[in-house]
Known about the structure:
- The complex is a heterodimer.
- Chain A is of the alpha/beta class.
- Helix content of chain A is about 45%, strand content about 15%.
- Chain A has helices at about 1-15, 35-55, 65-80, 95-100, 105-110, 125-130, 155-160, 170-180, 195-205, 210-215, 230-240, 255-260, 275-280, 320-330, 335-345, 350-360, 375-380, 395-410, 415-440; strands spanning about 25-35, 55-65, 85-90, 105, 140-145, 145-150, 185-190, 245, 265-270, 290, 305-315.
- In chain B, helix 5 (about 120-130) packs across helix 7, helix 9 crosses helix 10 (about 230-240) and helix 11 packs antiparallel against helix 12.
- Chain B is globular and about 75 Å long.
- By secondary structure, chain B is mainly alpha-helical.
- Chain B contains twelve helices and two strands.
- The model of chain B has no long low-confidence stretch (mean pLDDT about 85).
- Classes of the chains: A alpha/beta, B mainly alpha.
- The interface between A and B is large, with 38 and 40 residues.
Amino acid sequence: MKHFGVKFAAMALALGLGATPALAEKVKFEFWHGLSGDLGERVKETCDKFNASQSDYEIVCTSQNGYPETIQNAIAAYRAKKNPAIVQVFDVGTLDLMLSGAYIPAKKLMDDNGYKIDWDNYFGGIARYYADSKGVLNSFPFNSSTAMFYYNIDAFTKAGIDGAPQTWEDVEADARKLKSAGFDCPFGFSFDSWATVEQFSAIHNQPIATKNNGYDGLDTELVFNKTKVVDQLTFFKKMTDEGLFQVKTAQLGMDVVPAFASQTCQMIQSSIADHGTIGKTIKPGTKWTVTMLPVWKGTERKNSLVGGASLWVLKNRPEAEYKGAAAFLNFIAQPDMVEWWSTVTGYIPVTKTGFDAMKANGFYEKPQFAGREKAIESLTYTPAGDLTRGIRVGGFPQIRKEISNAMEGIFFGKMTVQAGLDQAVERGNAIIRRFEKTYAGQTLN
Amino acid sequence: MNKRAVFKSRWLPILFALPQLLLIFFFFYWPATSVLTWAFSLEPAFGGAGDRLFVGWDNFREVFADREYWQSVTLSLVFAFTATALSMFIAFVLAICVDRQLKGSGLFRFFYIWPYAIAAPAVGLAFRFIFAPESGLIAIVNTWSPDLWNPAKFGSHAMILVIICFAWKWIGYNFIFMTAGLQSIPRSLIEASSMDGSGPVRRAIDLQIPLLAPTLFFLLVLNLTESFVGPDTYGIVDLTTEGGPNGATNVMVYRIVSEAFQGLNYSGAASQSLILIGLIMVFTFIQFRFVERRVHYK
């Protein structure tokens, strides 16, 4: 029925029936996203708000239940020319979209439809991730996050620790104190490369790959087996062997977020987007908070990387739908919408005006939201540099899998840190070469 | 005096077969041809067939040169043979027991077929919780001795876990066929051998297995194929181990699907599925050529 509605609207327009607005059927268009559960409900609410705010367009929001599923289904639909007008694509799918030729750049869409967007209003670190080499946005930052360090204040107090750990030296010292105070799992971590490898590299100004993490060409090569990542994993391994750090994965029975929320582990690294979930699931009255990811002593801290997803406008739709899409994207970029979205989800506001509005309303002083401003601080700590604007490497979802594979090997005693990382780099480079060949002749614009 | 009805029309049989032929065409041959074109080219995720690159056998060469690919083949074989053997053996034991008409066998017959009706991902999810080494029901064994059971850590344990899941689900299916087969064995044969003094095991080996051979052969082919390439294997691996730890349960079918859809590497996955189709053909050929010889249908 959805498709029928879209077709009917398109047909009506094609026949000229849409010429008089009074008779016109609302233009329907589709938006596919990957959020589900509580966050999915919030997206639906966003769509309802848009539909209620005007009478020309109707957006139909469909959850595909997961980021990978969304991009897979969008690809299948695009190939069959039945794609939605707007699709949400996760951070590491950005390069696939950029090279696909299947989208209308954000700036062009808004210019064509007469919307004036203050592009400089987006936080630099966020905007540059989704921009071309000239800094022009290809897609709209929507739900943005970054990795943070969560710790349990109650446990810290009990162990006699004062204040947030700033450095990994602090983390080690705190872990020892927590252990001797009887906490079995001072720090829990999983084999997710995002926080431990990618964010770590960014804030320590270490490259993940050559050519400025791939921004300067598809002929990039992974190098994280020669950077501080080796020392970091060696440190993690040592701590794990001493029982101070513990592996927490879904396969073992509990991922890091439930491990923290159930107070099994007292410190974790995770996305700021989990702030809301933890707040809802941790035992009421527990004191906990977030802080920026620690750095090694003597490191000049850089900004962390933006995670999450952005909204892409796909080709192949009738012109009228693009007017609706532009109206929707303009709608969600308004400061009050940015503020509402960040409040109800835990994602960070993507625009400066949105952030300022939230600050002015005292949002960050409310106890249940306190600490979320640290995510902005982390993202904007320094202006996004060559190694901190993002990772633009082909086939990165698969490379992440190689990294977590290697970490499984390293932490479960099958190989050394160096051997594991070498293997991940070697296999990852093969993935990049294949990607480069597939898109031969294309350059990053 | 053999009277046979012969249909002279050439079109009538085709007409009757048409629905099936169409199904096979649209859901097998058509996709298979596009897999064929992808396997010999480099297919970008969003298409763009015009400038598709023909690369000859490159994709296959790359697959064969990959050490992990061969590991995956070995794992698939280990998985397929062990899971098939386990599920058929247990199903056979259960079927024999039910066939003895003991008290309550009707009830058991009813219950034993249930697992097959459960979708593989649901099985995987349930077993993941039961067998989670730190918080599942099984966690108690780790209090006796740490890491006695840890599929998240040890590849062998993870393999055992997926084999158990698959076997558990397929026991029900095998059980139905075996029970039906056993019921068609004349009672008098069983009774006669009992009077000659043979016990249940002797009877199973000398009477029931040979007489059940056609059914067992059919189930063998089906179980091996299903465990090797079936959607159940994918669903179970995806929900329990995700191919880990460190690739220890990265069986071929899981590898192909995750490479195609998570990695968006359509061409690499396409060439791997062609190899898999080829392997299955060889597999089935061997079974019919060598195993079936020993099966007597009448």
